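re the bet — no i am not wrong, look at it urself. input seq straight from the record:
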Amino acid sequence: MGNPTTSGVPRARVTFTEFGSPDDPMLQAWARFRSGFAGESGGMHFTVRVPTAKRESGLWRLIATNNRELGRSFLLYSRFDMARSHVEELQLDAVGLSIEHVMGRRRGSHGWVVVSRGAIVMTCSRWYSSPSTSMASARGALQAFRTAALAAPERNDSSGRRRRTGVSAGADVL
């Protein structure tokens, strides 16, 4: 898939990944990374909720024009269309999005989250060694997110490989 463009200018994209099982390796990696934001971090209090039922779920990721992951959804969605409509809603309310600095569990690790109306909606995709690098990443990710194109959903199969999938109806956030 080529890079989405607006007026011939390449732009970031939001990809959607669906998982057929809570045991999916990519979903488990997302949950482990997300658990680093659990508890008290930078004055914010929240808990991590991961799926326990054997049902499909999904998340979204913000991908730069060079295919590097800039950020990822904090929420896990039970349906593709819910994830997509939430991203569209967030993009329409871009002025309502703010960046919060967070400290990682490891000494000297810094990260960020994007907050909308008091709720965390996006996290950094990795930990940084300095607050300035973390915040520069956050500003770039938020700027890219505001104009990112929305991609078709992909589903991870049992091998961890991704494949395109059809869109399912209905919507819930896990």
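see?? Residues 86 and 105 are 29 Å apart (CA to CA). told u. also The radius of gyration is 16 Å. so pay up
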